[in-house]
From TrEMBL:
The keyword Transcription does not apply. This is Cytochrome c oxidase assembly factor 6 homolog. Belongs to the cytochrome c oxidase subunit 6B family. GO terms for cellular component: mitochondrial intermembrane space. Keywords: Disulfide bond, Mitochondrion. It is found in: Mitochondrion intermembrane space. It comes from the Eukaryota. It holds the Pfam family COX6B. Involved in the maturation of the mitochondrial respiratory chain complex IV subunit MT-CO2/COX2. Thereby, may regulate early steps of complex IV assembly. Mitochondrial respiratory chain complex IV or cytochrome c oxidase is the component of the respiratory chain that catalyzes the transfer of electrons from intermembrane space cytochrome c to molecular oxygen in the matrix and as a consequence contributes to the proton gradient involved in mitochondrial ATP synthesis. May also be required for efficient formation of respiratory supercomplexes comprised of complexes III and IV. Gene3D superfamilies: Cytochrome c oxidase, subunit VIb. GO terms for biological process: mitochondrial ATP synthesis coupled electron transport; respiratory chain complex IV assembly. SUPFAM superfamilies: Cytochrome c oxidase subunit h. The keyword Mitochondrion applies.
Length: 95
């Protein structure tokens, strides 16, 4: 049998798949908290938080960043909704 045409799938690096250590998790959470605090203090100008965003991105796994971004959006929406401040967009209100 000739296996010369078989495509070899690269194995995932154990390092890339390893769970973050406690120290790495704490660094990630700390960077997230500092970034979120900056966003809360600079609601009108999130560009003030670019350095903290970079630190957050370099301290956390990409999947965690996506999760935390979605989580923050949800929490902010929930906060406005519960306070009665949520205003549906015009396109949402029509549907």
């Amino acid at each position: 049998m000739d296996f010369s045409c078989v495509v070899k799938i690269p194995s995932l690096s154990p390092l890339g798949m390893a769970a973050p250590s406690m120290k790495e998790r704490q660094a990630c959470w700390g960077a997230r908290d500092e970034y979120w605090k900056c966003l809360d203090e600079n609601t009108e100008d999130a560009s003030q938080c670019k350095k903290l965003r970079s630190s957050f991105e370099s301290s956390c796994p990409q999947q965690w960043i996506k999760y935390f971004d979605k989580r923050r959006d949800y929490l902010k929406f929930k906060e406005k909704f519960e306070a009665g401040q949520f205003q549906p967009s015009k396109t949402t209100a029509k549907s």
